[in-house]
């Protein structure tokens, strides 16, 4: 159940599930798409339904063509390639996934009973929440701060916070781009403020504070790779 929790191919849960030997594997999820189309490959890989695709070939055939075709400056060729990739992607999902909507199962489910239990924030959580709202990343998201505060202009990013730098450095690494600015130019934010690309990451940080302040502490274990190291550095700066 909740097979999307194993969407990280490098994670221990993903590796443990793929190592299980059985005649059949079934994965249940209500959210097959989390962040990118590669999440679907990870779930198919867990149950052995990924077919001939490894992660890199899956990204080359589906992930990148579909992403290019969704850009505002996509060419006619990009649109045709995207539609071809989407058609094959749907065929792959149809062959491996059984979809059930709420309408399909509404008569078999019990009635829903909600209980609302107030859980106010502690003083420490309130202070951390306020500090995050006043941080450079949140001020940029609110349109109250610019990427460059010293007036030097591009490529200066002295006004950027750790989340902005982490998001765009990660994009640069994934796409083979030169630096954060090159990634920002290729990003939905286009290097402008307020940067829409930060919205989800910032909301998740606030959710972590409201759940438990410990969730903002960096992992004390040594990083396994460069991605882990960047994540730990981000949490330390936060």
Written overview of the protein:
The two termini are 33 Å apart. This protein is globular. The model has no long low-confidence stretch (mean pLDDT 87). By secondary structure, the protein is mostly helical. Helix 3 (55-69) crosses helix 4. It is built from 11 helices and no strands.
Shape: globular
Task: List segments where confidence is low: pLDDT < 50 over at least 5 consecutive residues.
Answer: none
Helix content: 40-55%
Strand tally is 0
What proportion strand? under 5%
Using the CA coordinates, give the radius of gyration.
21 Å
Separate helix tally: 11
The SSE string, one letter per element, is: HHHHHHHHHHH
Q: Main beta sheet, described?
A: none
Sheet/helix structural class: mainly alpha
Distance between the termini: 33 Å
Average pLDDT confidence is 87
Question: How would you summarize the topology of this molecule?
Answer:
Layout: H1 12-19, H2 38-46, H3 55-69, H4 76-96, H5 102-105, H6 123-133, H7 136-141, H8 162-175, H9 180-186, H10 199-211, H11 226-237
Descriptive tags:
50% helix, globular, 11 helices
What's a quick, concise take on this entry?
By secondary structure, the protein is mainly alpha-helical. It has helices at residues 12-19, 38-46, 55-69, 76-96, 102-105, 123-133, 136-141, 162-175, 180-186, 199-211, 226-237.
């Amino acid at each position: 159940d909740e097979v999307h929790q194993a969407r990280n191919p490098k994670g221990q849960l993903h590796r443990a599930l793929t190592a299980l030997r059985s005649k059949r594997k079934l994965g249940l999820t209500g959210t097959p798409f989390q962040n990118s189309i590669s999440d679907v490959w990870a779930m198919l890989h867990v149950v052995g339904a990924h077919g001939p695709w490894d992660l890199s070939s899956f990204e080359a055939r589906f992930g990148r063509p579909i992403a290019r075709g969704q850009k505002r400056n996509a060419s006619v060729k990009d649109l045709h390639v995207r539609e071809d990739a989407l058609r094959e992607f749907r065929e792959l999902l149809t062959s491996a996934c059984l979809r059930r909507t709420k309408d399909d199962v509404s008569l078999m489910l019990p009635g829903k009973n909600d209980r609302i239990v107030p859980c106010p924030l502690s003083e420490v959580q309130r202070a951390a929440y306020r500090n995050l709202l006043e941080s450079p990343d949140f001020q940029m998201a609110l349109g109250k701060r610019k990427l460059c505060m010293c007036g030097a202009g591009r490529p200066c990013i002295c006004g950027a916070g750790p989340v902005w730098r982490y998001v765009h450095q990660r994009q640069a690494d994934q796409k083979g781009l030169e630096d954060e600015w090159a990634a920002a130019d290729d990003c939905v934010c286009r290097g402008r403020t307020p940067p829409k690309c930060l919205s989800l990451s910032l909301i998740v940080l606030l959710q972590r504070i409201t759940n438990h302040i410990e969730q903002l502490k960096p992992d004390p274990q040594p990083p396994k790779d460069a991605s882990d190291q960047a994540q730990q550095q981000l949490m330390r700066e936060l």
